[in-house]
Amino acid sequence: MFKKILIANRGEIALRVLRACQELGIKTVAIHSEADERAMHVRMADESICVGPASAQSSYLNIPAIITAATLTNVDGIHPGYGFLSENQRFAEIIEEHNIKFIGPHSSHIKIMGNKIDAKKIMDDNKVPTVPGLNDISNKIEIEKFINDVELPVIVKAASGGGGKGMRVVTNKEEIENSINSAKAEAKKSFDDDKVYLEKFLTTPKHIEIQILADSHGNVVSLGERDCSIQRKHQKLIEESPSEILTNEKREEISELSKKAVSSLGYEGVGTLEFLYENHNFYFMEMNTRLQVEHPVTEMVTGIDLVKQQILAASGEKLKISQNDIKLKGHSIECRINAEHPESFIPSPGKITQYHQPGGLGVRVDSSVYQGYSVPSHYDSMIGKLITYADNRSECISRMKRALEEYVIMGINTNIQLHQKIIMTEEFQSGKYDINFMSSFN
Ligand code: MV4
């Protein structure tokens, strides 16, 4: 088992990992930038070490400084959290070269899944349904054939893409060449890889993802799904588990296929398969090889501590949970609390002058802020997550409504009012919303 873990992250996820370590009896090292000297993750860790100036590039993304910190503090594991270096193959490799355990999958698996074409091929080989697509776009006749086959619209996507960069929706044939070229240029600039591919564009899907947990002995379990369709500009806003529209049959079917695929790869740790879901069909898009922001809703409905399990798996322990032990019970919803204007979405850093967080039965707040804390302007605007749990979805929504009303954050703008509006809509209450929900919302 690990003796001491360095947490290569900040904010609420650094706290989340710290708490898991504390329960497992593992010592912790926080890293921080000059702007984060007074951050809660620094206060809560056993040791802390400054890795650079405020900008993420020179601190939380500074691999040499983080490796130096890990060596100086003698840690035997590094947890990357999400974002920052969590899906950086080179970071995982360098850590392993220093005989420290990267708490995540093997670097080769980060690499494979980092290429969406390769990821889709692997899933396809394993009978996981994928979005119909064309990977080799060097031949104009093949493109023509593909479009005739699947019918417009189609979408151009970057192989190394993520977060919507290097994507172009094509609605008429004449646009295809221009769209490919501009997607290529954007992909080259963003990912230094201009490889793009085509997919049939699904117009009204839900975004549903499957949570997987695997140990290093070939055991894999599925922890059910999360519906993450409420998002804006590829930033998720609200996630829930289970999805209101999935039957047990559909859930089991996609879980089994996902598990088999992950198992055949020899994948270790936590992972998420992202699907589009339309007309009762799943279409695999990509796999995330990290712990995700929205993991708490899965923890609430399964009762399983995903971060502890992730750390145990990385230490080589055998999974003690079998698929039969996993029963989705009740309902959970997560609202991401951002320091931003609720209408303009402009980030709102600054000092929190008053702070009261909601509590009570079925209310969980994963946040790193406190009264008197100054939200720095250098990083993501998400300052925490409000998670509610109840026996059923409608009680879970009522509890979220109450918890949002109880939440007081003064001194900065937040999206709390926006969440209140969203959860009260008929569309949200029905559970039948799709990925277009926010574009028609005002
Ligand atoms: C799609 C799609 C429809 N059809 N692919 C957006 C981010 C990137 N991961 C993939 N994305 C999409 N790919 C096909 N073939 C629609 C989206 C999409 C989306 C997906 C999930 C959640 C929100 C979204 C918002 C806009 C577009």
Question: Can you put this structure into words, describing what you see?
Answer:
The protein is of the alpha+beta class and 442 residues long. The chain has three domains: 4-103, Rossmann fold, CATH 3.40.50; 132-200, ATP-grasp fold, A domain (Dna Ligase, domain 1, 2-Layer Sandwich); 206-440, D-amino Acid Aminotransferase, Chain A, domain 1 (2-Layer Sandwich), CATH 3.30.470. 33% of the residues lie in helices and 26% in strands. It has helices at 11-24, 40-44, 63-72, 89-97, 107-114, 116-125, 140-150, 176-191, 248-265, 295-302, 306-314, 393-406, 416-424, 426-430; strands at 4-7, 27-33, 47-52, 77-79, 101-102, 133-134, 154-158, 168-170, 196-200, 206-214, 220-232, 235-241, 269-278, 281-288, 331-338, 350-351, 354-356, 363-367, 374-375, 382-390, 408-410. The strands form five sheets. Strands 14-13-10-11-12-15-20-18 form an eight-stranded antiparallel beta sheet. A five-stranded parallel beta sheet has the order 3-2-1-4-5. Strands 6-9-7-8 form a four-stranded antiparallel beta sheet. Strand 4 (77-79), helix 4 and strand 5 form a beta-alpha-beta unit. It is globular, with a radius of gyration of 21 Å. The termini are far apart. Residues 131, 155, 164, 199-202, 207, 231, 234, 276, 285, 435 line the site of ligand MV4.
Keywords:
single chain; 442 residues; Rossmann fold; Dna Ligase, domain 1; D-amino Acid Aminotransferase, Chain A, domain 1; 3 domains; eight-stranded antiparallel beta sheet; five-stranded parallel beta sheet; 14 helices; 21 strands; 26% strand; binds ligand MV4
